[in-house]
Write a structure and sequence with these properties.
This protein is an alpha+beta fold. The protein folds into three domains: about 5-55, Molybdopterin biosynthesis moea protein, domain 2 (Alpha-Beta Complex); about 75-85 and about 315-360, no CATH class; about 95-315, Hypothetical protein af1432 (Orthogonal Bundle), CATH 1.10.3210.10. The protein has helices spanning about 40-45, 75-80, 95-110, 115-135, 150-170, 175-185, 195-200, 205-210, 215-225, 230-240, 260-275, 285-295, 300-310, and strands at about 5-10, 15-20, 20-25, 30, 50-55, 140, 310-315, 320, 330-335, 345, 350-355. The strands form four sheets. The protein has a four-stranded antiparallel beta sheet with strand order 8-9-10-11, with helices on one face. A three-stranded antiparallel beta sheet has the order 1-5-2, with no helix packed on it.
């Protein structure tokens, strides 16, 4: 049996398997999760002030080989008859992913560069083209991934989701583009946070948390010196942790004092943070994260939240899901307002379950 255990860095031994990623201030992964530690890595952790990390002890039980799900001929016939393709989704080609990942890496490592704004515009243009080329109006939240390095992935995920939300929200292309830039740069202030705070596996002290909360201020300070970045983009970066009820930071403004860009970025930022594993927390499932977002009615802009929910595809058409009645089913149709309850067809029975509209399916959930 495998057991997860927190161990102080000074007590680490070579050969131990680390169960968290260790990143630097720019988001680069220094030690990947699952790595077996050597003396050099342990020394590097000590030098960087990382107090301790989670490790795995014991051996994993061998996994059974997965077999393809059986689909009866009756189910196949029903699926082909009722299947409705998903709305156009954002797709990033491998070449664009590579270019975007390299671009974001440059931004987070070269905040003082004279090419900073040009590099930002190039990335935003790539994302904008990915959205406009196939008239994307939705995003498959399970497919967003540019790299394994958290800050780079998070920045692009937030930018892409924010642009789709903004489009669904009805904003013109210029503002959709600017929101993309603000989303890319919303965490740029984390380059000013010490590595030992960013990588801390345990709960932050009050002083450390206060420092982390300043990253939006740090980001604003970095960007305000760049003449080609608009005030709207700056406000998006500065206010992306403000809440509608006034309990956010760094200032604690509320409702109409929070910029439109910040309201949109905030929703995308919270969602992506929830579904991403960090040194100090496990990832939530996409479903759990969406349900948590839906419960934040006092913190998030309701109209933005609605646009977000209408932009998300949680269970893409043709994906297989497990129903609470014990049957496996294939997704055949998604509707924007009922993303947690699509139409599905049982793989063996061929029965159509309209989880959103059929009262006979009210007690059936996707597990």
């Amino acid at each position: 049996m495998v057991k997860r255990k927190f161990i102080r860095t000074r007590s680490l031994q070579t050969g131990m398997k680390i169960d968290q990623a260790v990143v630097d201030g720019t988001g680069r992964t220094l030690i990947a999760r699952g790595t077996f530690l050597d003396e050099y890595m342990i020394e590097a952790l000590l030098n960087r002030g990382v107090g301790g990390v989670y490790t795995l002890e014991g051996e994993e039980e061998p996994k059974e080989e997965k077999k393809g799900d059986f689909v009866s001929p009756k189910a196949e016939a029903v699926i082909e008859k009722v299947k409705v393709p998903d709305r156009a989704k954002v797709k990033l080609s491998e070449s664009v992913k590579k270019r975007v990942a390299e671009g974001v890496s440059f931004l987070y490592n070269n905040t003082e560069s004279e090419n900073f704004v040009d590099a930002t515009n190039n990335i935003a243009s790539d994302l904008m083209r990915a959205i406009t080329d196939n008239d994307s109006i939705a995003v498959d939240v399970g497919a967003l991934k540019v790299s394994d390095e958290y800050t780079f992935k998070h920045s692009v995920d937030v930018a892409t989701m924010s642009m789709i939300i903004a489009k669904q929200y009805g904003l013109p292309e210029k503002q959709v583009y600017e929101i993309g830039i603000s989303g890319l740069l919303h965490d740029i202030g984390k380059t000013k946070i010490p590595n030992e705070v960013l990588n801390k596996a345990g709960k932050l002290t009050d002083e450390e948390f206060d420092l982390m909360k300043k990253h939006s201020l740090f980001g604003y300070s970095i960007l305000k010196e760049k003449s080609d970045i608009s005030p709207a983009i700056l406000l998006g970066v500065l206010q992306h942790h403000e809440k509608m009820n006034g309990r956010g930071y760094p200032v604690g403004v509320q409702e109409d004092k929070i910029s439109e860009y910040a309201r949109i970025i905030s929703t995308a930022d919270i969602y992506d943070a929830l579904v991403t594993e960090r040194p100090y927390k496990k990832a939530f499932s996409s479903r759990d994260a969406l349900e948590m977002i839906m419960a934040m009615t006092d913190e998030l802009d309701i109209t933005v939240m609605r646009s977000f929910m209408e932009s998300v595809i949680l269970y893409p058409v043709d994906s297989v899901v497990q129903l609470s009645n014990g049957e496996k089913a294939r997704v055949v149709e998604n509707t924007p307002n009922t993303i947690l309850r699509p139409k599905v067809v049982g793989l063996t029975t061929g029965k159509l379950y309209d989880l959103a509209e059929d009262v006979n399916c009210a007690s059936i959930l996707i597990e």
